[in-house]
User: Which sequence fits this backbone?
Protein backbone atom coordinates (compact mmCIF):
# COMPACT_ATOMS: atom_id res chain seq x y z
CA UNK A 1 0.00 0.00 0.00
CA UNK A 2 1.48 3.35 -1.07
CA UNK A 3 0.71 6.64 0.63
CA UNK A 4 0.43 8.41 -2.72
CA UNK A 5 0.20 7.01 -6.23
CA UNK A 6 0.84 9.57 -8.96
CA UNK A 7 -0.57 8.87 -12.43
CA UNK A 8 1.55 10.58 -15.09
CA UNK A 9 5.30 11.17 -15.41
CA UNK A 10 5.45 14.69 -16.84
CA UNK A 11 6.61 17.77 -14.94
CA UNK A 12 3.43 17.98 -12.83
CA UNK A 13 3.46 14.29 -11.88
CA UNK A 14 7.16 14.33 -11.05
CA UNK A 15 6.75 17.50 -8.95
CA UNK A 16 3.88 15.90 -7.02
CA UNK A 17 5.87 12.69 -6.49
CA UNK A 18 9.00 14.53 -5.32
CA UNK A 19 7.00 16.81 -3.01
CA UNK A 20 5.23 13.82 -1.45
CA UNK A 21 8.53 11.97 -1.15
CA UNK A 22 10.14 15.01 0.49
CA UNK A 23 7.37 14.83 3.11
CA UNK A 24 8.41 11.24 3.85
CA UNK A 25 5.57 9.45 2.06
CA UNK A 26 5.83 6.12 0.25
CA UNK A 27 5.24 7.16 -3.35
CA UNK A 28 4.65 5.30 -6.61
CA UNK A 29 4.42 6.86 -10.05
CA UNK A 30 2.64 5.27 -13.00
CA UNK A 31 3.76 6.35 -16.46
CA UNK A 32 2.50 5.16 -19.82
CA UNK A 33 5.05 6.97 -21.97
CA UNK A 34 6.65 10.35 -22.32
CA UNK A 35 4.18 13.18 -22.81
CA UNK A 36 4.18 16.89 -23.45
CA UNK A 37 7.11 17.49 -21.06
CA UNK A 38 9.42 15.69 -23.51
CA UNK A 39 8.31 18.21 -26.11
CA UNK A 40 9.41 21.17 -23.96
CA UNK A 41 11.19 23.98 -25.78
CA UNK A 42 13.67 24.25 -22.93
CA UNK A 43 11.98 27.37 -21.55
CA UNK A 44 10.19 27.36 -18.20
CA UNK A 45 6.93 29.18 -18.82
CA UNK A 46 5.52 30.55 -15.58
CA UNK A 47 3.18 33.34 -16.64
CA UNK A 48 2.62 35.85 -19.39
CA UNK A 49 -0.33 38.20 -19.74
CA UNK A 50 -0.64 40.92 -22.39
CA UNK A 51 0.09 44.40 -21.07
CA UNK A 52 -1.42 47.80 -21.65
CA UNK A 53 0.11 51.17 -22.67
CA UNK A 54 0.22 52.20 -19.00
CA UNK A 55 1.90 48.95 -17.95
CA UNK A 56 4.08 47.48 -20.74
CA UNK A 57 4.17 43.68 -20.71
CA UNK A 58 7.95 43.43 -20.78
CA UNK A 59 8.37 45.48 -17.62
CA UNK A 60 5.85 43.56 -15.56
CA UNK A 61 7.10 41.24 -12.81
CA UNK A 62 6.21 37.53 -12.80
CA UNK A 63 3.93 38.21 -9.84
CA UNK A 64 2.21 40.89 -11.93
CA UNK A 65 1.66 38.41 -14.77
CA UNK A 66 0.23 35.81 -12.36
CA UNK A 67 -2.15 38.35 -10.83
CA UNK A 68 -3.21 39.51 -14.31
CA UNK A 69 -3.91 35.93 -15.46
CA UNK A 70 -5.85 35.13 -12.28
CA UNK A 71 -7.90 38.30 -12.68
CA UNK A 72 -8.82 37.69 -16.31
CA UNK A 73 -9.30 33.89 -16.53
CA UNK A 74 -11.70 32.45 -13.97
CA UNK A 75 -10.94 28.77 -14.74
CA UNK A 76 -7.17 29.17 -14.68
CA UNK A 77 -5.52 27.31 -11.74
CA UNK A 78 -3.87 30.59 -10.66
CA UNK A 79 -7.40 31.98 -10.19
CA UNK A 80 -8.80 28.79 -8.64
CA UNK A 81 -6.12 28.47 -5.95
CA UNK A 82 -5.59 32.23 -5.63
CA UNK A 83 -2.63 34.05 -7.11
CA UNK A 84 -0.79 34.32 -3.77
CA UNK A 85 -1.02 30.59 -3.10
CA UNK A 86 -0.02 29.87 -6.70
CA UNK A 87 3.04 32.06 -6.36
CA UNK A 88 4.20 30.34 -3.17
CA UNK A 89 3.61 26.88 -4.65
CA UNK A 90 5.54 27.79 -7.82
CA UNK A 91 8.47 28.96 -5.70
CA UNK A 92 8.47 25.66 -3.77
CA UNK A 93 8.11 23.70 -7.01
CA UNK A 94 11.04 25.55 -8.59
CA UNK A 95 13.25 24.67 -5.61
CA UNK A 96 12.25 21.00 -5.94
CA UNK A 97 12.91 21.09 -9.68
CA UNK A 98 16.29 22.80 -9.29
CA UNK A 99 17.60 20.19 -6.89
CA UNK A 100 16.12 17.37 -9.00
CA UNK A 101 17.86 18.64 -12.14
CA UNK A 102 21.19 19.40 -10.45
CA UNK A 103 22.85 16.00 -11.20
CA UNK A 104 22.08 16.31 -14.91
CA UNK A 105 23.34 19.89 -15.17
CA UNK A 106 20.00 21.30 -16.29
CA UNK A 107 19.37 23.45 -13.19
CA UNK A 108 17.42 26.58 -14.15
CA UNK A 109 18.06 30.05 -12.74
CA UNK A 110 16.98 30.27 -9.08
CA UNK A 111 13.45 31.50 -8.44
CA UNK A 112 14.70 34.63 -6.71
CA UNK A 113 16.40 35.72 -9.97
CA UNK A 114 13.27 35.41 -12.07
CA UNK A 115 12.12 39.01 -12.52
CA UNK A 116 10.51 39.70 -15.04
CA UNK A 117 10.15 37.60 -18.25
CA UNK A 118 13.26 37.77 -20.43
CA UNK A 119 13.70 37.41 -24.23
CA UNK A 120 14.86 33.92 -25.24
CA UNK A 121 15.77 33.14 -28.86
CA UNK A 122 13.62 30.46 -30.46
CA UNK A 123 14.82 28.10 -33.21
CA UNK A 124 11.87 29.28 -35.28
CA UNK A 125 13.11 32.86 -35.19
CA UNK A 126 11.52 34.99 -32.48
CA UNK A 127 12.31 36.40 -29.07
CA UNK A 128 10.00 34.46 -26.77
CA UNK A 129 9.19 35.78 -23.28
CA UNK A 130 10.10 33.22 -20.61
CA UNK A 131 10.60 33.41 -16.86
CA UNK A 132 13.44 30.92 -16.85
CA UNK A 133 14.84 28.01 -18.80
CA UNK A 134 16.97 24.92 -18.48
CA UNK A 135 20.64 25.72 -17.86
CA UNK A 136 21.93 25.84 -21.43
CA UNK A 137 19.38 28.43 -22.55
CA UNK A 138 19.75 32.07 -21.70
CA UNK A 139 18.15 35.40 -22.50
CA UNK A 140 19.63 37.67 -25.15
CA UNK A 141 20.38 40.92 -23.40
CA UNK A 142 22.87 42.81 -25.55
CA UNK A 143 26.41 42.97 -26.92
CA UNK A 144 27.62 41.41 -30.13
CA UNK A 145 26.14 37.91 -30.51
CA UNK A 146 26.98 35.22 -33.09
CA UNK A 147 24.22 32.87 -34.25
CA UNK A 148 25.75 29.61 -35.48
CA UNK A 149 24.67 27.68 -38.58
CA UNK A 150 25.98 24.12 -38.93
CA UNK A 151 26.50 22.86 -42.48
CA UNK A 152 23.46 21.03 -43.83
CA UNK A 153 21.30 21.64 -40.73
CA UNK A 154 17.78 22.05 -42.10
CA UNK A 155 16.18 22.40 -38.65
CA UNK A 156 17.89 25.67 -37.74
CA UNK A 157 18.31 28.65 -40.07
CA UNK A 158 20.78 31.03 -38.39
CA UNK A 159 20.22 33.84 -40.92
CA UNK A 160 16.48 33.78 -40.33
CA UNK A 161 16.80 33.41 -36.55
CA UNK A 162 19.24 36.35 -36.32
CA UNK A 163 17.12 38.59 -38.53
CA UNK A 164 13.87 37.76 -36.75
CA UNK A 165 15.41 38.15 -33.28
CA UNK A 166 16.84 41.58 -34.14
CA UNK A 167 13.44 42.62 -35.52
CA UNK A 168 11.60 41.30 -32.45
CA UNK A 169 14.11 42.98 -30.16
CA UNK A 170 13.43 46.34 -31.78
CA UNK A 171 9.64 46.06 -32.14
CA UNK A 172 8.50 43.98 -29.13
CA UNK A 173 11.24 44.44 -26.56
CA UNK A 174 12.55 47.93 -27.30
CA UNK A 175 16.14 46.68 -27.52
CA UNK A 176 18.67 47.26 -30.28
CA UNK A 177 20.33 43.83 -30.58
CA UNK A 178 23.39 42.94 -32.60
CA UNK A 179 23.05 39.32 -33.76
CA UNK A 180 24.96 38.08 -36.79
CA UNK A 181 24.79 34.63 -38.42
CA UNK A 182 28.05 32.64 -38.54
CA UNK A 183 28.52 29.65 -40.86
CA UNK A 184 30.46 26.55 -39.77
CA UNK A 185 31.62 23.62 -41.87
CA UNK A 186 30.83 21.17 -39.07
CA UNK A 187 28.35 18.64 -40.45
CA UNK A 188 24.89 19.27 -38.98
CA UNK A 189 22.88 17.30 -41.52
CA UNK A 190 21.60 14.73 -39.01
CA UNK A 191 18.14 15.07 -37.45
CA UNK A 192 18.32 17.13 -34.18
CA UNK A 193 18.25 14.20 -31.76
CA UNK A 194 20.75 12.30 -33.90
CA UNK A 195 23.03 15.33 -33.96
CA UNK A 196 22.78 15.67 -30.17
CA UNK A 197 23.68 11.98 -29.81
CA UNK A 198 26.68 12.50 -32.09
CA UNK A 199 27.84 15.43 -29.94
CA UNK A 200 27.68 13.19 -26.86
CA UNK A 201 30.98 11.97 -28.26
CA UNK A 202 33.43 14.49 -26.82
CA UNK A 203 35.70 14.06 -29.86
CA UNK A 204 32.94 15.52 -32.02
CA UNK A 205 32.31 18.21 -29.40
CA UNK A 206 36.00 19.21 -29.48
CA UNK A 207 35.91 19.32 -33.28
CA UNK A 208 32.89 21.66 -33.15
CA UNK A 209 34.47 23.76 -30.41
CA UNK A 210 37.76 24.32 -32.26
CA UNK A 211 35.99 25.32 -35.45
CA UNK A 212 33.69 27.62 -33.51
CA UNK A 213 36.60 29.24 -31.68
CA UNK A 214 38.21 30.23 -34.98
CA UNK A 215 35.20 32.15 -36.27
CA UNK A 216 33.58 33.84 -33.28
CA UNK A 217 36.41 35.99 -31.91
CA UNK A 218 35.27 39.20 -30.28
CA UNK A 219 31.64 38.26 -29.62
CA UNK A 220 30.01 38.46 -26.18
CA UNK A 221 27.84 35.32 -26.61
CA UNK A 222 27.13 32.53 -29.07
CA UNK A 223 23.66 31.20 -29.97
CA UNK A 224 23.67 27.53 -31.02
CA UNK A 225 20.91 25.23 -32.26
CA UNK A 226 19.72 23.10 -29.30
CA UNK A 227 21.80 20.02 -30.09
CA UNK A 228 24.71 20.19 -27.62
CA UNK A 229 24.57 16.60 -26.39
CA UNK A 230 21.77 14.42 -25.11
CA UNK A 231 23.05 11.93 -22.51
CA UNK A 232 26.30 13.86 -21.87
CA UNK A 233 24.92 17.36 -22.33
CA UNK A 234 26.73 18.83 -19.34
CA UNK A 235 30.17 17.74 -20.66
CA UNK A 236 29.43 18.72 -24.27
CA UNK A 237 28.25 22.19 -23.27
CA UNK A 238 31.27 22.69 -21.02
CA UNK A 239 33.65 21.59 -23.81
CA UNK A 240 32.23 24.09 -26.29
CA UNK A 241 31.91 26.88 -23.72
CA UNK A 242 35.49 26.45 -22.43
CA UNK A 243 36.87 26.61 -25.97
CA UNK A 244 34.95 29.72 -26.97
CA UNK A 245 35.38 31.52 -23.65
CA UNK A 246 31.99 33.28 -23.77
CA UNK A 247 28.49 32.10 -22.83
CA UNK A 248 27.10 29.55 -25.29
CA UNK A 249 23.32 29.77 -25.43
CA UNK A 250 21.15 27.10 -27.00
CA UNK A 251 18.07 28.46 -28.80
CA UNK A 252 14.70 27.20 -27.58
CA UNK A 253 13.74 24.09 -29.55
CA UNK A 254 10.86 23.17 -31.76
CA UNK A 255 9.94 19.54 -32.41
CA UNK A 256 11.66 17.14 -32.14
CA UNK A 257 13.01 18.74 -28.98
CA UNK A 258 16.43 17.76 -27.63
CA UNK A 259 15.95 19.88 -24.46
CA UNK A 260 12.58 18.18 -23.89
CA UNK A 261 14.13 14.71 -24.10
CA UNK A 262 16.95 15.79 -21.79
CA UNK A 263 14.40 17.15 -19.29
CA UNK A 264 12.26 14.02 -19.36
CA UNK A 265 15.30 11.78 -18.85
CA UNK A 266 16.57 13.97 -16.01
CA UNK A 267 13.17 13.84 -14.30
CA UNK A 268 13.20 10.03 -14.56
CA UNK A 269 16.63 9.93 -12.93
CA UNK A 270 15.44 12.30 -10.18
CA UNK A 271 12.49 10.00 -9.42
CA UNK A 272 14.73 6.96 -9.10
CA UNK A 273 17.21 8.90 -6.95
CA UNK A 274 14.41 10.04 -4.64
CA UNK A 275 13.19 6.47 -4.15
CA UNK A 276 9.89 6.80 -5.97
CA UNK A 277 8.62 3.39 -7.10
CA UNK A 278 8.01 3.40 -10.85
CA UNK A 279 5.13 1.28 -12.09
CA UNK A 280 3.95 0.97 -15.69
CA UNK A 281 0.77 2.09 -17.35
CA UNK A 282 -2.51 2.03 -15.44
CA UNK A 283 -5.68 1.14 -17.31
CA UNK A 284 -8.48 1.13 -14.77
CA UNK A 285 -9.58 2.37 -11.37
CA UNK A 286 -11.35 0.72 -8.46
CA UNK A 287 -13.59 3.02 -6.45
CA UNK A 288 -15.72 2.56 -3.39
CA UNK A 289 -18.25 5.25 -2.54
CA UNK A 290 -16.46 8.56 -2.49
CA UNK A 291 -12.94 7.13 -2.48
CA UNK A 292 -10.53 5.67 -4.99
CA UNK A 293 -9.28 2.36 -3.57
CA UNK A 294 -6.77 1.24 -6.19
CA UNK A 295 -5.78 1.50 -9.81
CA UNK A 296 -5.19 -1.41 -12.12
CA UNK A 297 -1.92 -1.89 -13.96
CA UNK A 298 -1.78 -2.94 -17.60
CA UNK A 299 -0.67 -6.41 -16.59
CA UNK A 300 -3.72 -6.80 -14.34
CA UNK A 301 -1.92 -5.99 -11.09
CA UNK A 302 -3.85 -4.09 -8.42
CA UNK A 303 -2.12 -0.98 -7.05
CA UNK A 304 -3.78 0.29 -3.86
CA UNK A 305 -2.89 3.65 -2.27
CA UNK A 306 -4.22 6.00 0.36
CA UNK A 307 -4.42 8.92 -2.10
CA UNK A 308 -4.00 9.42 -5.82
CA UNK A 309 -2.69 12.33 -7.89
CA UNK A 310 -3.96 12.45 -11.45
CA UNK A 311 -1.34 14.13 -13.66
CA UNK A 312 -2.06 12.39 -16.94
CA UNK A 313 -2.14 15.48 -19.16
CA UNK A 314 -4.72 16.51 -21.71
CA UNK A 315 -5.72 15.25 -25.14
CA UNK A 316 -2.16 15.20 -26.58
CA UNK A 317 -0.87 13.11 -23.66
CA UNK A 318 -3.88 10.79 -23.55
CA UNK A 319 -5.28 12.03 -20.24
CA UNK A 320 -8.40 13.25 -21.99
CA UNK A 321 -10.18 11.23 -24.66
CA UNK A 322 -12.77 12.27 -27.18
CA UNK A 323 -15.04 9.41 -28.22
CA UNK A 324 -18.59 9.41 -26.95
CA UNK A 325 -18.22 12.94 -25.68
CA UNK A 326 -15.13 14.37 -24.09
CA UNK A 327 -14.01 12.84 -20.79
CA UNK A 328 -11.02 12.23 -18.60
CA UNK A 329 -9.54 8.87 -19.60
CA UNK A 330 -9.01 6.89 -16.38
CA UNK A 331 -11.86 7.84 -14.02
CA UNK A 332 -14.30 9.00 -16.71
CA UNK A 333 -14.57 12.45 -15.13
CA UNK A 334 -16.43 15.10 -17.15
CA UNK A 335 -14.29 17.82 -18.71
CA UNK A 336 -14.55 21.53 -19.07
CA UNK A 337 -12.99 23.72 -21.77
CA UNK A 338 -12.55 27.42 -22.30
CA UNK A 339 -16.00 27.36 -23.89
CA UNK A 340 -17.65 25.11 -21.27
CA UNK A 341 -18.55 21.49 -22.05
CA UNK A 342 -17.80 20.12 -25.54
CA UNK A 343 -20.49 18.77 -27.79
CA UNK A 344 -19.46 15.89 -30.01
CA UNK A 345 -21.59 16.87 -32.98
CA UNK A 346 -20.47 20.48 -33.12
CA UNK A 347 -16.96 20.51 -34.65
CA UNK A 348 -16.79 24.30 -34.54
CA UNK A 349 -16.72 23.94 -30.77
CA UNK A 350 -13.79 21.52 -30.93
CA UNK A 351 -11.49 23.23 -33.43
CA UNK A 352 -11.70 26.89 -34.31
CA UNK A 353 -10.45 28.37 -37.58
CA UNK A 354 -8.85 31.53 -36.22
CA UNK A 355 -5.23 30.76 -35.21
CA UNK A 356 -5.41 33.51 -32.57
CA UNK A 357 -7.98 31.46 -30.69
CA UNK A 358 -7.27 28.27 -28.78
CA UNK A 359 -8.86 25.02 -29.89
CA UNK A 360 -11.38 24.10 -27.16
CA UNK A 361 -10.52 20.38 -27.36
CA UNK A 362 -6.94 21.25 -26.42
CA UNK A 363 -8.15 23.09 -23.32
CA UNK A 364 -10.40 20.24 -22.13
CA UNK A 365 -9.62 18.85 -18.69
CA UNK A 366 -11.17 18.26 -15.31
CA UNK A 367 -12.60 21.03 -13.18
CA UNK A 368 -11.01 21.38 -9.74
CA UNK A 369 -11.41 23.21 -6.44
CA UNK A 370 -8.69 25.16 -4.64
CA UNK A 371 -7.23 21.91 -3.19
CA UNK A 372 -6.93 20.49 -6.72
CA UNK A 373 -9.70 17.95 -6.14
CA UNK A 374 -11.69 17.20 -9.30
CA UNK A 375 -15.28 18.35 -8.96
CA UNK A 376 -18.35 17.03 -10.73
CA UNK A 377 -21.52 19.11 -10.74
CA UNK A 378 -20.23 21.19 -7.85
CA UNK A 379 -19.28 18.19 -5.66
CA UNK A 380 -15.89 16.63 -4.97
CA UNK A 381 -15.61 13.57 -7.22
CA UNK A 382 -13.45 11.45 -4.86
CA UNK A 383 -12.18 12.54 -1.45
CA UNK A 384 -8.68 11.11 -2.02
CA UNK A 385 -8.17 12.08 -5.69
CA UNK A 386 -6.21 15.21 -6.65
CA UNK A 387 -5.32 16.62 -10.07
CA UNK A 388 -2.11 18.28 -11.21
CA UNK A 389 -0.82 19.82 -14.41
CA UNK A 390 -2.58 20.03 -17.73
CA UNK A 391 -5.27 17.51 -16.87
CA UNK A 392 -6.83 20.51 -15.13
CA UNK A 393 -8.92 22.07 -17.87
CA UNK A 394 -10.59 25.29 -18.89
CA UNK A 395 -7.61 27.41 -19.90
CA UNK A 396 -5.13 27.64 -22.77
CA UNK A 397 -1.50 27.52 -21.62
CA UNK A 398 -0.45 28.49 -25.13
CA UNK A 399 -1.69 32.04 -24.62
CA UNK A 400 -0.82 32.52 -20.96
CA UNK A 401 2.63 30.85 -21.38
CA UNK A 402 2.12 29.18 -18.03
CA UNK A 403 2.39 25.40 -18.60
CA UNK A 404 5.43 24.90 -16.36
CA UNK A 405 4.18 27.25 -13.66
CA UNK A 406 0.87 25.41 -13.56
CA UNK A 407 2.64 22.04 -13.43
CA UNK A 408 4.85 23.14 -10.51
CA UNK A 409 2.09 24.89 -8.53
CA UNK A 410 -0.59 22.23 -8.98
CA UNK A 411 1.93 19.40 -8.44
CA UNK A 412 2.95 20.83 -5.07
CA UNK A 413 -0.64 21.64 -3.99
CA UNK A 414 -1.98 18.24 -5.10
CA UNK A 415 0.77 16.36 -3.23
CA UNK A 416 0.14 18.33 -0.04
CA UNK A 417 -3.59 17.71 -0.38
CA UNK A 418 -2.98 14.00 -0.87
CA UNK A 419 -0.96 13.84 2.34
CA UNK A 420 -3.26 16.05 4.43
CA UNK B 1 -14.57 51.28 -61.41
CA UNK B 2 -18.20 52.02 -62.33
CA UNK B 3 -17.83 50.10 -65.58
CA UNK B 4 -16.53 47.00 -63.74
CA UNK B 5 -19.37 47.21 -61.24
CA UNK B 6 -21.91 47.53 -64.07
CA UNK B 7 -20.35 44.66 -66.09
CA UNK B 8 -20.33 42.33 -63.10
CA UNK B 9 -24.01 42.90 -62.43
CA UNK B 10 -24.83 42.46 -66.14
CA UNK B 11 -23.14 39.05 -66.16
CA UNK B 12 -24.88 37.93 -62.98
CA UNK B 13 -28.25 39.22 -64.14
CA UNK B 14 -27.96 37.52 -67.54
CA UNK B 15 -26.96 34.23 -65.93
CA UNK B 16 -29.94 34.41 -63.58
CA UNK B 17 -32.37 35.14 -66.43
CA UNK B 18 -30.99 32.26 -68.50
CA UNK B 19 -31.30 29.95 -65.54
CA UNK B 20 -34.92 30.91 -64.85
CA UNK B 21 -36.17 31.17 -68.44
CA UNK B 22 -34.27 28.38 -70.19
CA UNK B 23 -34.03 25.71 -67.49
CA UNK B 24 -37.30 23.97 -68.48
CA UNK B 25 -36.19 23.50 -72.11
CA UNK B 26 -32.41 22.99 -71.95
CA UNK B 27 -30.76 19.79 -70.61
CA UNK B 28 -29.09 20.19 -67.22
CA UNK B 29 -25.28 20.03 -67.50
CA UNK B 30 -24.80 20.80 -63.80
CA UNK B 31 -23.27 18.64 -61.11
CA UNK B 32 -25.93 15.91 -61.17
CA UNK B 33 -24.90 14.14 -64.41
CA UNK B 34 -21.23 14.52 -63.50
CA UNK B 35 -21.76 12.81 -60.17
CA UNK B 36 -23.77 10.13 -61.96
CA UNK B 37 -20.79 9.38 -64.21
CA UNK B 38 -18.59 9.03 -61.17
CA UNK B 39 -21.01 6.56 -59.62
CA UNK B 40 -20.93 4.45 -62.80
CA UNK B 41 -17.19 4.10 -62.62
CA UNK B 42 -17.68 1.41 -59.98
CA UNK B 43 -14.74 2.38 -57.78
CA UNK B 44 -13.34 -0.36 -55.58
CA UNK B 45 -14.14 -0.13 -51.89
CA UNK B 46 -11.27 0.76 -49.58
CA UNK B 47 -10.28 -2.40 -47.66
CA UNK B 48 -10.90 -2.23 -43.91
CA UNK B 49 -7.28 -3.12 -43.17
CA UNK B 50 -6.12 -0.04 -45.04
CA UNK B 51 -8.32 2.20 -42.93
CA UNK B 52 -6.83 0.73 -39.78
CA UNK B 53 -3.34 1.47 -41.10
CA UNK B 54 -4.34 5.03 -41.94
CA UNK B 55 -5.84 5.46 -38.49
CA UNK B 56 -2.60 4.31 -36.92
CA UNK B 57 -0.18 6.39 -38.96
CA UNK B 58 -2.40 9.46 -38.77
CA UNK B 59 -2.14 9.33 -35.03
CA UNK B 60 1.49 10.53 -35.22
CA UNK B 61 1.79 14.08 -33.89
CA UNK B 62 5.30 14.56 -35.21
CA UNK B 63 6.89 15.06 -31.79
CA UNK B 64 10.04 13.19 -32.83
CA UNK B 65 10.47 11.43 -29.48
CA UNK B 66 11.00 8.10 -31.25
CA UNK B 67 14.22 9.53 -32.72
CA UNK B 68 15.74 9.26 -29.26
CA UNK B 69 15.67 5.45 -29.31
CA UNK B 70 17.30 5.22 -32.74
CA UNK B 71 20.87 5.68 -33.95
CA UNK B 72 22.09 9.24 -34.66
CA UNK B 73 21.65 9.03 -38.42
CA UNK B 74 18.17 7.49 -38.16
CA UNK B 75 14.89 9.41 -37.92
CA UNK B 76 12.02 6.95 -37.34
CA UNK B 77 9.68 9.93 -36.84
CA UNK B 78 10.17 10.80 -40.49
CA UNK B 79 9.78 7.21 -41.63
CA UNK B 80 6.46 6.92 -39.81
CA UNK B 81 5.01 10.09 -41.29
CA UNK B 82 6.55 9.80 -44.74
CA UNK B 83 7.50 6.32 -45.89
CA UNK B 84 4.17 4.71 -45.07
CA UNK B 85 2.33 7.24 -47.21
CA UNK B 86 4.46 7.20 -50.34
CA UNK B 87 3.72 3.96 -52.20
CA UNK B 88 5.69 5.14 -55.23
CA UNK B 89 8.98 4.90 -53.32
CA UNK B 90 8.01 2.04 -51.04
CA UNK B 91 10.78 -0.25 -52.29
CA UNK B 92 13.32 2.26 -50.97
CA UNK B 93 11.67 2.10 -47.57
CA UNK B 94 11.98 -1.66 -47.11
CA UNK B 95 15.19 -1.31 -45.15
CA UNK B 96 13.45 1.16 -42.90
CA UNK B 97 10.49 -1.15 -42.38
CA UNK B 98 12.90 -3.77 -41.10
CA UNK B 99 14.51 -1.27 -38.75
CA UNK B 100 11.10 -0.04 -37.54
CA UNK B 101 10.20 -3.61 -36.63
CA UNK B 102 13.41 -3.85 -34.61
CA UNK B 103 12.66 -0.60 -32.81
CA UNK B 104 8.93 -1.25 -32.37
CA UNK B 105 9.06 -2.25 -28.73
CA UNK B 106 11.24 0.70 -27.70
CA UNK B 107 9.14 3.17 -29.67
CA UNK B 108 5.94 1.76 -28.18
CA UNK B 109 7.32 2.54 -24.73
CA UNK B 110 8.02 6.14 -25.60
CA UNK B 111 5.38 7.19 -28.15
CA UNK B 112 2.81 9.53 -26.60
CA UNK B 113 0.40 9.01 -29.51
CA UNK B 114 0.62 5.19 -29.46
CA UNK B 115 1.41 4.91 -33.15
CA UNK B 116 1.34 1.18 -34.03
CA UNK B 117 4.84 1.03 -35.45
CA UNK B 118 4.64 -2.64 -36.47
CA UNK B 119 1.56 -1.81 -38.55
CA UNK B 120 3.44 1.04 -40.19
CA UNK B 121 6.29 -1.33 -41.06
CA UNK B 122 3.76 -3.81 -42.49
CA UNK B 123 2.22 -1.03 -44.59
CA UNK B 124 5.61 -0.10 -46.04
CA UNK B 125 6.17 -3.78 -46.93
CA UNK B 126 2.69 -4.03 -48.50
CA UNK B 127 3.28 -0.87 -50.53
CA UNK B 128 6.60 -2.24 -51.74
CA UNK B 129 4.96 -5.50 -52.78
CA UNK B 130 2.22 -3.68 -54.72
CA UNK B 131 4.85 -1.57 -56.43
CA UNK B 132 6.87 -4.65 -57.39
CA UNK B 133 3.76 -6.26 -58.92
CA UNK B 134 3.04 -3.12 -60.93
CA UNK B 135 6.58 -3.12 -62.29
CA UNK B 136 6.37 -6.72 -63.47
Assistant:
Amino acid sequence: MFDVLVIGGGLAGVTAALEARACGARVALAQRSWGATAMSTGALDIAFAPGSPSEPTVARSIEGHIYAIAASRARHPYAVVGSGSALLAIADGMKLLSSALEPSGLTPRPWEAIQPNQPYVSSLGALVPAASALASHGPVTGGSVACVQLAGDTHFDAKHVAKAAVHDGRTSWGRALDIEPVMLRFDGSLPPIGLAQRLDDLGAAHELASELKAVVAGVSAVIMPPVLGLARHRETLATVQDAVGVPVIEALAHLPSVPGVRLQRALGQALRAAGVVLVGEVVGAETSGERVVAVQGKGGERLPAKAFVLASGRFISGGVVFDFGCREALFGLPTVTELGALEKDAPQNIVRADPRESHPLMTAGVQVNASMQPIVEGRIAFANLFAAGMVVGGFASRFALCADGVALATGVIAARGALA
Amino acid sequence: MMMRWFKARMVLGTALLRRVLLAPVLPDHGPKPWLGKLANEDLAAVPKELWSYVGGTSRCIGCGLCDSVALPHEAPSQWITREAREPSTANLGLERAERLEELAREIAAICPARVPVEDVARLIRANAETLAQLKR
